[in-house]
Every structure is written in C-alpha cells, then in structure tokens.
Recover the amino acids of this structure.
C-alpha cells in the first residue's frame, strides 16, 4: 500500500509506467527497503535490479524470486508489485527468524514488463533470457524519441552488470508469485494456483476483402459481404478453441470495418485473432483448422481472405522440480490449491529459458487486472507469500 | 456529359452537393436548357424546380417525370442526373417531332435527394409529398450552421410556389428513370427494369454488452464476449433475410468494438442492422425473428443485448397503371425487360404518396453507384429515355 502511493490514481489504481520519474521513486523505495533488510543490491545494464541475501555456502547458486513494479497506465496495486514485495517479505521473515540458508536468496525486479511506454513487453526478463540483445533494448524509443538507454540514465538505473550474468552462476531455481489476472481461482474458491506452465500464443492479422455495395439494391446472392464472412470466421475462432479444451483459447479483440456505414455492405474487414494453447502441437492444430475454415467461409461468401501471423510466444512448461515444490508448499501449509496454467505472459516465462522456474497464483477480485479496480484479499496475499517462502526454502536449505 | 463538367472530379465522377454554388451552376444550366426548349419554369419554396410543356387541354392534369441533380461527395454522372436529362430529352424529342400532347408534360428536379449536406435525404420530394413541413425543411442546418432557407436564398432558388401545389391539379402520373444502382439487370443482361415497387426499410442500433477481460487468463467458459455474440447475430441477420427470398435484405454495415484491443475480450459491440422487404408483413416477420434470435444468442453467450429501431420507411407498391405503362412501352420498343423492385429509396417513392407513379431502371456498370466509377452504357441510357417517352405519351395523349 505504501508503494501504491507512488503514481496513485483517484480511482484507487496506480499509474507508474516503466522508466519514468515515478518508476524511479518506486524503485528507490523498494531498493531502500531491500538495503534496510541487509540485502546487497546490483543493477544490470538494462535496469533489472537484483537484491541478494547471502547464504552459508559461498559456492551455491542463488535461489531467486521476483516480478515487476511498473504498471499499466490505468493499472492496479497488485500486478507485478505483489511478487516483488512477497519476495521482500520472504527475506524479512528469514531475518526475523534468524535463519541462514545454504544457498543465497535473490530478489529481482525486471524492467518494463508491461510494455506501455517502450516495446517489447517483458523487456528486462527477455534480455536476461538472451531473447533480446542489451543494445537492442537500450536503443528502443518511446513516442517522444527518448531511448531506453537515455531513460535509464535519467532515472539513475543504468547498471554495470552485464545482462544475463549472475554472481555465483545462474539461479538454481526461480519462483514468481503473481495475481492470477483471471477468474479461475476465484470461481473455484481456492487461494493458491500451482502454475504448471504458460500457454503459447500465436497472433494473426486477418483481412477479408469483398466489395462495397448499397445495402438496398444488392440482392443477397450477388453480394461480396466482408462483414458477414468475418462474422462467421469469428464464430469459428471460438469453435476451434472449444475443441482444444481445457487449454485452448481463441479471441477476436480487434475488428475494423470499411467503410463502416450502416447502409453499405462492407467491402473490407480487418480483424485480429489471438490463439493460445499449452502445446505447440495444439497451436498447430488450431492454426490449420483456422486456415481451412476461413478458406471455406471465404469461398462460400465470395470474398478473399488473407491471414498473417504477427506474434509468436512458445508454450512454456515449468520445471517439474519447481512446480512440485509449489504444490508441496501449499499442501504443507494446509492451503487448498489446484494446478492452473498461465494464459498470459510473465517474466517467469522468459526466466524459465535460463533456470528451473515455477509460479504461484493467488486470486484477484472478479478476475480483473490491468484496471484500477484490480484487488486481492489480504489472506490470499499472505497465503501466496507463505507458499513462496516454503518453496524457496526447499531449494535453498 | 456537359452537366457532369460542373463539379467534375479527377477520377471522372461528380461532386455537386445540394444547395452549393456548384448546385446553383448545375441548376442554372438545366433551367437554361428547359427554357431553350420552350418550357415554363417554376420553383417552389423548398427549391424544387418544375418545367412545364403545355398541352392542348387546359383542364388536364400534367403527366410528370423527374429526379435530382445533386450528387454524393464522390458521386457519379448518372445517379439522378440521368432521370432529369431523360425527361428533358422527352420534351426536346416531342418538340422536334412537333407533337402536342393533350395533357401538359412536366419535368421536376427535387432538392437534396442525397442528404449529404442537409438531412433528411429526399428532402424536396418528401416535402412535396407532405411528409415534411416546408418550414421544418427550411430550418434544417448544415455543419456550418447555414439553414436550407439561407442556402436557397444564396443560390437564388427560393421559389414562391407553395410546396405540394401543382398548377392544374396533382400529376395524373409520375415516371422516374434512374440507373439501377445494383447488379441485377447487368447480371440478367437486360437493358430495362420495370420497377414494381420499393422495399420498406427498418434500421436498428444494436448494443451487445459483455465484460472486458484478458484474452489469455480467461477460459472460454467464463467469458462474456460481446464480439462473439455480435458475430453470431450478424450471421443471423443474413439467415433471416435469406428466408425472405427474393425480396428480403439484411445488412450489418457498421460495427464498433470496445475496447478494440487484440488481446482483450471485447466488453461491448455496437452495430447497425438494416432490414428490407417488399411488404410490411415481411418486415414484421424479420423483426420478430431477429429479436428472438438475438435474445437466444445473448443468453447463450452470457451477454446483454439492446435493440432500438431508428429508421423506418414503409414498403411502396407503385401504381399498376404506371407499372403496366412502363412494361408495355418496353415491349412495344422491342427492349428486353424484367420486373424488379427498388432496394433503395428514390424521389418517386415519396411522389407515389401523391400521384400514380412508376419507375424505369437501366443497368449501371458492375452495379456501382455513389462512386466516381459509376458508369452506364449509351444504348441503355437511350433505351431508358425511349421507354420514358412512350410511358408518358400513353398517359398524356
């Protein structure tokens, strides 16, 4: 709640966009808390921050946690921020109890997870994973022409540590606690989701081209109605996802109609398709089914269709050793839980390319996120932090 | 082609919007041609212009023809203009042949058929029919705040004749020649369409309300996807129209998605529905089927739907005596023809409320209208004018 004061919005949310002056204030506050907890703080060349609690074995690789503290423009208090502060609470709790772990513990917060001001999203963890070069990231510019490198200098978070390097070697394990950002746990009435992986994503730009014509004088049989064909395709996107239950997702979120006049048969419709599934084989099935179905609809409707894939995230299966630790921790604490998958991307999905990784979800109110109404119950927040503590200890002891 | 020079566009079309300086130039040119043909020209208080060729019987009601010379912003040479100039050619032909008819003949061009600058559309003929009061029409304002009354003064076409009054009594018959503005005659390979009536129209604003949610974390079963429901409704609009073959039309030309972001399940979709049919009973069936279907789709998709009717034009059946005259004229001239209905509104549909009315359609290239590409073949134009001549003579002799 203290961190949420920085960039607080009138409706109870937070606007603290990556690499702004408010982000600097938020980073300074969290870094101050880390130092007060006796942690050793480092920053890498893309602004990722790492705070380490020493272990007893000088040769052991760190057991890490983290998330992000940047927000959407009309974001909430919990997205990302919960994971970072849960990690800090783990450190403080161990301090309070005088426990020294064998392996060092490390808390990270990653630069620009949200991708609001600078693209790509999940920039810091992506660079850490080696998906993006540091120089590529530092050269990205916002709408005012300011680069990530310049913004890092301005807020004092251009670090010296080469991105991807970890003192003592790559993390032995990485755990990220996060609000679910969806309705599954709340609907099930459970405080803990054991995240087994993250859905792969394939996004497409689809264009249906027919011919503009007057709605009145043009009989149905002589039409080339791009909207009618697009409507049938949108229904098919849903059907294709339903056939891939329970992990298939198919969404059309963007539709643009041309000329978009009430008495003109649309000559062109552009729309997006977002397909998700837990396996690449599943995504491949959905892709093939979509292409076949769209071609058939286009032929029936006497229109043309083009399909261009524009975004691709591979499906991610988290390390069984880490997923099992989360499940055991919840069980040991007597917390009701279920296995879930993440439908969205998270920093953990990139970190999983470098280190064994697991995630812990807690419910959020009405499944709402990326919204000032985002909220979570204190008992769920506490439960998630306790599971994080136990899972990290299992690997660090 | 001379008239089309006034407001000619680089792509071969015409932009001559009602009550502008260009409209004045077009009106002046046509009025000049009428006077040169010996016609007596009058203007009414909403700017409708009437040009009369005297008959031999001073007590006979006039047999009239007409259309409009205003255009869409990116309009063509033929829409409306063909009907006015075909009427002028009828007068000139009778002059050339020295024929004096029993009844007077009258050529009208109606103010602001297109409704581009001022609403409502078909303003002049609507006022003539008594659907709109003259003072209501004269008070309508464009986006710059200029009223129809002021614009009429500016271009010198505020006449003295009370709207709806006709010297010698209401027209004995009214015929309007027009390009089809659709693809039916071209597809059938016929030069003449005998127009039996015009489809009634009912337009609706539909709003589907669901709930915005992340496309990734929200399983299909927990969604309130306004776009998916809207897509199914759009498909139903088509199905409902197909069931009313051959005269049913159903079109969704306008769709607005909110928030319209590719990875957000749409929480709201607004769209238009345009239903047309030749009978009110048919329109009533379509309305009922649409409401039942939309309610079912909304329930299945866990969304709300609201349907508001915003526009209504009654179906119009033209006078059998006039329709038969057009059919006989085409047959007598050896011109292949078919009965058609008008899917769109025309000045003739309003005039039909006051006088027995018929229409003659000729094909236009690719069915295209309201477009600079609008075109028609000289032999079809000639055929249409000849049918108009014969149909008028049958009533005026």
């Amino acid at each position: 709640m203290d961190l949420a004061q920085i960039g607080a919005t009138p409706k109870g949310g937070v606007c603290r966009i990556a690499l702004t002056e408010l982000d600097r204030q938020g980073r300074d506050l969290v870094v101050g808390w880390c130092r007060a907890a006796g942690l050793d703080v480092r920053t890498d060349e893309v602004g990722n921050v790492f705070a380490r609690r020493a272990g007893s074995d000088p040769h052991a690789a760190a057991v890490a946690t983290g998330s992000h503290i940047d927000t959407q423009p009309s974001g909430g208090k919990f997205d990302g921020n919960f994971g970072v502060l849960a990690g800090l609470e783990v450190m403080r709790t161990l301090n309070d109890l005088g426990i020294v772990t064998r392996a060092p513990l490390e808390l990270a917060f990653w630069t620009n997870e949200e991708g609001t001001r600078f693209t790509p999203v999940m920039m810091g963890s992506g660079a850490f994973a080696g998906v993006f070069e540091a120089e590529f990231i530092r050269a990205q510019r916002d709408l005012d022409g300011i680069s990530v490198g310049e913004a890092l200098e301005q807020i004092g978070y251009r670090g010296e540590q080469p991105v991807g390097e970890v003192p003592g070697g790559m993390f032995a394990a990485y755990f990220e606690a996060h609000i679910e950002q969806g309705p599954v746990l709340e609907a099930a009435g459970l405080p803990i989701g054991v995240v087994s992986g993250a859905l792969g994503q394939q996004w497409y730009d689809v264009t249906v081209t027919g011919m503009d014509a007057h709605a009145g004088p043009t009989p149905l049989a002589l039409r080339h109605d791009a909207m009618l064909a697009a409507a049938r395709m949108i229904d098919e996107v849903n059907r294709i996802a339903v056939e891939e239950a329970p992990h298939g997702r198919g969404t059309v979120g963007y539709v643009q109609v041309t000329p978009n006049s009430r008495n003109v048969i649309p000559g062109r419709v552009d729309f997006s398709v977002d397909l998700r599934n837990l396996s690449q084989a599943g995504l491949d099935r959905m892709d093939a089914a979509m292409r076949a179905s769209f071609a058939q609809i286009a032929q029936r409707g006497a229109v043309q269709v083009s399909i261009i894939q524009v975004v691709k995230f591979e499906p991610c299966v988290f390390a069984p050793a880490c997923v099992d630790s989360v499940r055991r921790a919840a069980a040991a604490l007597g917390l009701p839980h279920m296995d879930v998958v993440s439908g969205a991307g998270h920093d953990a999905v990139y970190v999983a390319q470098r280190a064994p990784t697991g995630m812990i979800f807690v419910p959020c109110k009405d499944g709402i996120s990326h919204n000032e109404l985002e909220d979570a119950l204190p008992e769920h927040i506490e439960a998630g932090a306790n599971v994080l503590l136990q899972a990290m200890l299992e690997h660090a002891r």
